[in-house]
Design a protein that fits this description.
This protein has 730 residues and is α/β, with parallel strands linked by helices. Helix content is 48%, strand content 16%. The protein binds flavin-adenine dinucleotide.
Length: 730
């Protein structure tokens, strides 16, 4: 706490001490006021302006310092100044005083509270940012919540001061009016409790609930407005139509069929979407072959003096296709039809909030009515408008799988997960790969040392990594294709045979009725926490909805979209993004769940970092993979996990234990207390927990335990100093 804060705290403490030691509160009782009422009124008659000013200042001071007595002062305001002036003075004085208390609490405590509990307050903070005014209004109207507590508590939240002020003034008005009015008949009042009858309290409570009801009403009106002009069918052909048969669409329709809904899944290209056909599956199959080659190259490390691999890149790519075909049955029309889903090959288009037009791939168009729709149309590679890009031709994650000849010189644009995975794979097949990234490092979402490890490995494998390089143009000179890049003001020319663009993925938002229905979208379709679009019966899930672009998050959202679409308004769930893991399948593999250090710092969340180096792990040493680390972020002084980053062999598998721990609220102590098989890579998780435990060992207690053991050995020779708790003298 800085000196200004300490000074303010000291001043407040002195004022409070004076208030109580001088027993000022005796002047703020009903009895005292009644006994002095005549004298006060006659003084006020002689000095009306001064009386109003003095009353106003005293009221602001009492409420600003959160001292008791505001209720009696409000009555006094009515008694001395009458209903009109009393209400005016009290209304402004109480709002200003409350705002001062709010500001004091904010200045003194908010940073401390947010720093200590910020991660747990995330949901509350988000709620206050969005609807703080509503909440405050409710609290102000329901007189059971003490106002001084509300002032101080609200000061700890992100509620803007201006909102606090005007909502307080408005919200307290009804209560103020009741008290000031009661004050005008002060003679008849014997106690504060008698002022508000149960009926009056109930009416205020109803008023308090009003904003929440109003919000619901606004939602209903908004939905009705969205549906305005559309004719709702009397009957529906389907309970649910799912547009897009990728990860999100498949899981959505599977769940719908499992709960016996009549569901139609429409896919215009290939079931399985990106993940099966152009994403996770082919990339991991390619990476596997590349890894095999990398192991051949490292044969001497494993005691094999020479190993030579002859391969045909075309055959490697054929294997990729064979892997896709092997996985394909999991996502096939036959399987889903068997599960109870009607699978239609065709292009779907929303023609009304309850109607989908399907143009079948084999020909023919039909319109189906449906109670709900889930949009799961996915995303596609984003191609930046770099001058000349269309002239040189480029590969993306959609088209790269058609290659059967390895490009000699490959430029990969993009240092994100997809760019990194494909860069390393192609380099391992022998392509000369130059990876170009505009940002200062690869995999910018991860902590700097993660990027550093990956980049060092890439460079050791012969990849030319150019970070901080912006692609400016593509040109063809003397038949040679060249990327012109800029780095710190200087121009660099990179000749290449093929360029792979992997700079991000753009949601598919066009061509299927979003514009016509006026469904808002930015980078992705706009949805609420229930994954509903502007039309409450139309949902979105997967890459097209964001904020994540993974198969497992698409499947996760699919559950919420399906259940909400089928059971709203009876039962609905907000999509839960509290524990989201992911991995990038480069070597060394990188996996993460929850916060990393850079995010914790950005969000001002305090943490302790515990790092266990996998270079020390027996199994990793035996496997020749002794590199990387497990980094666990915990709440300071506690074993509660805030996030984990693992870099190393099979990091994506290892992280599962921490994902479970975070989801189920299991701390490091319990991970440490769990048996892990020896020798496995999974032991790294336990050793990371052990490293945390060691750092938190109770040193004083251990010193006493050492003394106890020395005593049990009856060991007079034990140097006493070694067993003495730190700080104790002999
Ligand atoms: C190279 C690469 C590697 C990846 N690796 C991983 C990984 O290792 N792990 C991971 O979790 N994620 C990975 N991903 C991401 C993952 O593939 C996506 O997050 C996932 O496929 C998203 O699923 P989705 O259902 O939202 O969309 P998609 O899989 O794109 O499915 C959308 C489907 O909708 C169909 N469609 C669109 N419009 C219409 C219409 N009007 N009518 C009918 N059908 C329509 C499309 O044809 C498509 O099949 C990778 C992606 C790429 C490109």
């Amino acid at each position: 706490m800085n000196t200004r804060r300490i000074a303010l705290l000291a001043t407040l403490a002195v004022l409070a001490a004076l208030f109580f030691s001088l027993d000022v509160s005796r002047f703020l009782t009903l009895d005292f006021f009644k006994s002095q009422q005549a004298a006060i009124e006659s003084w006020r008659a002689g000095h009306p302006a001064l009386a109003a000013l003095a009353f106003f200042a005293a009221y602001v001071a009492v409420t600003g310092l959160s001292l008791p007595g505001a209720a009696v002062m409000t009555l006094a305001g009515g008694a001395v100044f009458g209903l009109g002036w009393g209400l005016l003075l009290v209304s402004f004085a109480s709002s200003i005083g409350a705002t001062l208390a709010f500001l004091v609490s904010r200045y003194l405590l908010r940073d401390v509270v947010q720093a200590k509990f910020g991660d747990r307050l995330q949901a509350l903070n988000a709620g206050i940012r969005k609807e703080g005014g509503f909440y405050l209004f409710t609290l102000r109207l329901v007189p059971v919540f003490p106002f001084f507590v509300i002032n101080l508590a609200m000061g700890l939240t992100p509620l803007p001061t201006r909102t606090f002020y005007w909502v307080s003034q408005l919200g307290m008005l009804a209560g103020t009016l009741a008290y000031v009015n009661a004050g005008t008949q002060l003679a008849g009042i014997d106690s504060l409790a008698g002022i508000l009858s149960p009926a009056l309290i109930a009416s205020f409570a109803l008023l308090g609930v009003f904003p929440l009801l109003a919000r619901k009403l606004v939602d209903i009106v908004r939905a009705r407005k969205a549906y305005e002009g559309w004719k709702r069918p009397v009957r529906f052909d389907r309970n649910l139509i799912v547009i897009g048969g990728g990860s999100a669409g498949l899981v959505t329709s599977y769940i719908a069929a499992a709960v016996k809904a009549r569901v139609t899944l429409v896919e215009k290209h290939k079931l399985g979407g990106d993940c099966l056909n152009t994403g996770c599956v082919p990339s991991k199959a390619l990476i596997r072959s590349a890894k095999f080659l990398s192991h051949m190259g490292r044969s001497a490390e494993f005691g094999i003096c020479s190993a030579r691999a002859e391969f045909d890149f075309g055959e490697v790519m054929e294997r990729v296709q064979r892997v896709i075909r092997s996985v394909e049955p999991h996502d096939s029309a036959e399987r889903y039809t068997g599960l109870g889903v009607e699978v239609v090959e065709g292009t779907a288009k929303l023609v009304s909030p309850w109607e989908v037009e399907i143009t079948r791939t084999g020909g023919g168009t039909e319109r189906l009515t449906t109670r709900s729709v889930v949009i799961a149309t996915g995303a596609r590679p984003f191609v930046p408008p770099i001058p000349g890009i269309e002239d040189v031709g480029y590969l993306t994650s959609d088209t790269v799988w058609n290659l059967r000849t390895l490009p000699r010189r490959l430029v990969v644009l993009g240092g994100g997960p997809i760019g990194c995975e494909l860069t390393q794979a192609f380099a391992r097949f022998g392509a000369e790969v130059t990876q170009v990234e505009m940002l200062p490092r690869l995999m910018m979402r991860e902590d700097p040392e993660v990027s550093e490890l990956v980049m060092r490995r890439f460079e050791a494998e012969g990849i030319r990594v150019l970070v901080g390089h912006q692609a400016k143009a593509f040109v063809v000179e003397s038949g040679e294709r060249i990327l012109v890049a800029e780095h710190e003001g200087a121009e660099l020319r990179i000749p290449f045979d093929a360029v792979l663009v992997a700079v991000g993925r753009a949601a598919n938002l066009k061509g299927y009725g979003l514009e016509e229905l006026g469904i808002p979208s930015g980078r992705t379709i706009e949805t609420n926490a229930f994954l509903q679009t502007r039309y409450p019966n139309i949902y979105a899930a997967g890459d097209v909805a964001g904020p994540f672009q993974f198969t497992h998050t698409a499947a996760h959202q699919a559950w919420y979209a399906a259940v909400n679409a089928l059971f709203a308004p009876f039962r609905t769930f907000k999509a839960d993004y509290s524990v989201i893991p992911w991995a990038t399948f480069v070597e060394p593999e990188v996996a993460r769940v929850g916060l990393n250090e850079q995010e914790a710092k950005e969000r001002g969340i305090p943490y302790e970092a515990t790092v266990y180096g996998i270079d020390d792990l027996d199994r990793a040493i035996a496997d020749g993979e002794a590199h990387g680390f497990v980094k666990v972020l915990t709440v300071p002084g506690k074993d509660r996990i805030l996030g984990v980053t693992i870099v190393g062999e099979h990091a994506g598998d290892l992280i599962a234990e921490y994902v479970l721990a975070m989801k189920q609220g299991i701390g490091l102590n319990r991970i440490l207390g769990t048996i892990h098989i020896y020798p496995t890579l999974a032991e790294a998780n336990k050793y990371a927990a052990g490293a945390w435990k060691k750092a938190h060992a109770p040193q004083r207690l251990l010193a006493w335990v050492a003394r106890f053991h020395a005593w049990r050995r009856r060991d007079p020779g034990t140097p006493r100093g070694t067993a003495r708790p730190a700080g104790e003298t002999a």
